[in-house]
Write a structure and sequence with these properties.
Shape: globular
Radius of gyration: 20 Å
Signal peptide: 1-23
Order of helices and strands: HEEEEEEEHEEEEHEHEEHEEEEEEHE
Keywords: Hydrolase, Signal
Family: Belongs to the DNase II family.
Number of domains: 1
InterPro entries: DNase_II
Number of helices: 6
Largest sheet: 9 strands, mixed
Strand content: 25-35%
Oligomer: single chain
Structural class: alpha+beta
Number of strands: 21
EC number: 3.1.22.1
Amino acid sequence: MCSRASWAVLFSLILICFTPGLGQISCRNEAGDPVDWFVIYKLPQYKINEMGSGLDYMYLDPSVEDWQLSKFLVNTSQGALGETLGQLYQAHKHQSNTTGYLMYNDDPPSLDYQKGHGHTKGALHFNKDQGFWLSHSIPRFPPFPERGYGWPPTGKQNGQTALCVTYKYSQFTEIAEQLLYYNPRVYNCSLPEIFLPAVSNLSYICQDSKIPQLPRRRVRKLVSARGESFLNFAKSRYYVDDIYAAWVAQVLKSNLLTETWQREEHELPSNCSLPEHVYNVKRIRLPGPVLFYSYFDHSKWCVSQLFRDQWSCIGDLNREDRQAWKGGGLICTQNPLIYRSFRKAISWYIGCQ
């Protein structure tokens, strides 16, 4: 016969396993099933020769061969973003002390802009088994946990990208170190003591404490839960240069085609002054066909110019003069599916003059 205490322990374990957000934490696909990674490309409202809802998006994960137009809209709790972040919201609702999370955005929801933080946006959610790191380009997103999933009214006009990768818990120590360089503006955070001191660097970030003195930049390999390698380039505000031309292209030893949100008064031109060159993308073409100009695309990504290199990077920073003074980063991979999908999306880019 089981004692009353034994039954209580068993009931607690069952509750943990079957309460959403308190079991295995991972990136989730369009059906809500665990995936190692996914990429979302939210379409701009203004496309060439047409105007859309500004809420449609393309979806990519290891199980598909090319961009797929989602049957969901990005402002609903269905679909990959809603399913993934829903785990964080459920953990907050149940006041879980076995999971940690962190939400950051230089332009957070319902708060005023502050100077001094990195130009970076994302969310972490993890337990002592595994979790996800969602890196994205969307201002005022995601909402505070008590409000549940939603999409900002300002998020319709421009294109946006988001990359989610599932990592085992051991990788979050490295991720925490990388985020010190980013110096993100955290607007909501939960870090129970069970995660200390393993990810103690997150406590600095959560409390908005003064960041310890760091080198100007750091690159580290991260390995996904299913063994896929990613390179994370993290730059602090003390590394005052264009992350794409001065650093990433030279480390990857590859000419890069870069798609970032640029405005004419601050735009950096294509750069051929270093051994590896960087060229600005001006027009994007996705399946459908969906055609739009870079001017209406707030996403930040780049790919190798040559197909043999197969590098793809998704991240935070734009190619413009002011962002040389900002912290932030890029997550790069040689996954052939991601490379092929982004490389085919480039309709027109500008060489050096």
